[in-house]
Specification:
Largest sheet of chain B: none
Shape of chain B: flat
CATH superfamily of the largest domain in chain B: MetI-like
CATH architecture of the largest domain in chain B: Orthogonal Bundle
Oligomer: heterodimer
Structural class of chain A: alpha/beta
Largest interface: A-B, 20 and 20 residues
Number of helices of chain A: 8
Number of domains of chain B: 2
Structural class of chain B: mainly alpha
CATH topology of chain A: Rossmann fold
Strand content of chain B: under 5%
Distance between the termini of chain A: 43 Å
Helix content of chain A: 25-40%
CATH architecture of chain A: 3-Layer(aba) Sandwich
Largest sheet of chain A: 6 strands, mixed
Number of domains of chain A: 1
Strand order of the largest sheet of chain A: 5-6-7-3-8-9
Radius of gyration of chain B: 24 Å
Order of helices and strands of chain A: EEEHEEHHHEHEHEEHH
Strand content of chain A: 25-35%
Number of strands of chain A: 9
Chain lengths: 249, 264
């Protein structure tokens, strides 16, 4: 398989006047083309820091990050972050505009994505007209239109209620697979991780190191909602649950 | 479209409430003026020092037909508009600069705070010496009063921009100008508009204070002149005209706000 991203011994320390905090320590893993990777771990363990480093928003303190092309990374955040004063179409084109890449081909691609994912009739409407799930789809299309090879998802469904969350995660998964993208998702929802990912990386408490990496092999693997019915689901859940440093203080 | 009875009832109630508020507002104003007029007519209050609505109306009417009203009104309006527009643009411009160069903001922050709490009227006598007894002093005074507050309020609005949207723009590789253009400015329209509304009263304070100090025409001048010759009709008429001006400015800014915030 084609190796898209290689992370080698990455560490990150934060500095403040109170002292130094080790957020992540010596993380190494590979991401192959077409893979869906989920990163789980207790809250505040540095999962988002890792994504920020991959996205180039933060610099690692040490270690190397080998990416085929740093421009080929798209980021989907905890909230849809749609701009209420821009129409849906303008929201989708925002990244292209900033990167000065608006071409007729790209415009046509944006239209194609909006039409194929049932947002065509809302192109000229404002985000306030859309439901939470639809907004999340717009946020994904805004990322896709930049044609990234890797999509980073930072707890992308955490702001949604449970039912919407299931439906939207199903939706987003199908779109990512259909557009043949590689994805790295950070989540605190173990069931969500197992139902979506090919590989799950379990991080320890801070400073985060890799505790274990699981390959998820479900029989009749299809979409996330169906995957929850697979007979291995409970087995993985049980196994990984014991690895996460989840505890009540 | 067919509406159910409950829906019709609901709409009727909302309309009734709106009308009730409007009618009450008119009655309140009318009662105030009527009581005032009657008290003055039946000598419960001394109309020489408390004037009366009819006397004020007569005074304004006389000012209007002699053309004096236009002279004074336009003099004050010109000062207000210049000070208001200058304050708005300079305030926005300086706030943008301070946002883009945070270290500069840190450095001048204590000075801004100090100037902000200084009673600007204390600078009046000095301004007269510097700029002369003309409307430059008046505009400068109004500008001093509205500018610092504008800068501080707008800058504060900028700093409250949505962190997640900021992160999104950074992930697109946006530079500071992009962030200003796509997020900070459009996201702060609400703050900017409420700052403008605040500026109306600040500018009015500055202009009238300035006119008290130096002017030979303007509404502030009318009021001071009226006091000096003990013509309280003129003084209170001047106050009525000021009320009208501030309401007019408020409506203009509200219309601008509606225009800029269509997406809501």
């Amino acid at each position: 398989m084609n190796n898209l991203l290689k992370i080698e011994k990455i560490s990150k320390n934060y500095h403040s006047q109170q002292g130094e905090i080790e957020a992540i320590k010596n993380l190494s893993f590979d991401v192959n083309e077409g893979e869906f990777i989920a990163i789980v771990g207790s809250s505040g363990c540095g999962k988002s820091t890792l994504l920020n480093i991959i996205a180039g928003l933060e610099k690692q303190s040490s270690g190397t990050l080998k990416i085929k092309d740093s421009k080929s990374i798209g980021y989907m955040l905890q909230q849809d972050a749609l701009f209420p004063w821009l129409t849906i179409k303008e929201n989708v084109l925002l990244g292209l505009k900033i990167q000065k890449k608006v071409t007729n081909d790209k415009l046509a691609y944006a239209d194609y994505l909006l039409d194929s994912y049932n947002l065509g009739e809302f192109k000229n409407k404002y985000p306030s007209c859309l439901s939470g799930g639809m907004r999340q789809r717009v946020a994904l299309i805004r990322t896709l239109v930049l044609n990234p090879e890797i999509i980073l998802l930072d707890e992308p469904f955490s702001a949604l209620d449970y039912q919407t969350r299931l439906a939207v995660s199903d939706d987003v998964y199908k779109i990512i697979k259909k557009e043949k993208k590689t994805a790295i998702m950070v989540t605190h929802d173990l069931a969500e991780a197992i139902s979506m990912a090919d590989k799950i990386i379990v991080l320890t408490k801070r400073p985060a190191i890799i505790k274990k990496i699981y390959d998820i092999n479900l029989t009749n693997k299809s979409n996330p909602i169906e995957n929850r019915k697979a007979k291995e689901f409970a087995y993985y859940y049980d196994l990984i649950w014991k690895d996460i440093d989840a505890f009540v203080k | 479209m067919h509406l159910s009875n409950e829906q019709k009832d609901y709409i009727r109630r909302i309309r009734f409430k709106k009308r009730f508020v409007l009618v009450s507002q008119i009655i309140l104003g009318f009662t105030f003026l009527l009581t005032w007029e009657l008290c003055s007519k039946y000598k419960i209050i001394n109309s020489f020092i408390f004037s009366s609505p009819l006397l004020c109306f007569k005074t304004i009417w006389e000012l209007l037909i002699t053309g004096e009203l236009l002279t004074h009104f336009s003099a004050t309006m010109i000062e207000i508009v210049i000070a208001f527009v200058l304050g708005a643009f300079l305030g926005l411009g300086i706030a943008i600069l301070l946002y883009l160069v945070p270290i500069l903001n840190k450095i001048i922050d204590p000075y801004l705070t100090m100037i902000n709490s200084l009673p600007k009227v204390a600078l009046g006598p000095m301004l007269i010496i510097w700029c002369g007894a003309n409307n430059k002093t008046i505009i400068f005074m109004a500008l001093l009063i509205n500018l610092i507050v504008s800068i501080l309020t707008i800058l504060n609005g900028f700093k409250n921009a949505d962190k997640i949207k900021l992160k999104l723009l950074n992930s697109f590789g946006a530079n500071k100008i992009d962030i200003m253009r796509y997020l900070i400015l459009p996201g702060s329209i609400g703050t900017i508009m409420s700052t403008l509304k605040l500026n109306i009263s600040m500018t009015l304070i500055g202009v009238i204070m300035g006119e008290f100090l130096v002017s030979k025409r303007g509404i502030g001048y009318l009021i001071i002149y009226g006091t000096q010759v003990f013509n309280l009709n003129l003084v209170i008429s001047g106050i009525f005209i000021l009320l009208f001006i501030s309401y007019l400015m408020f409506i203009i800014v509200s219309l601008a706000e509606k225009f800029f915030c269509k997406y809501k």
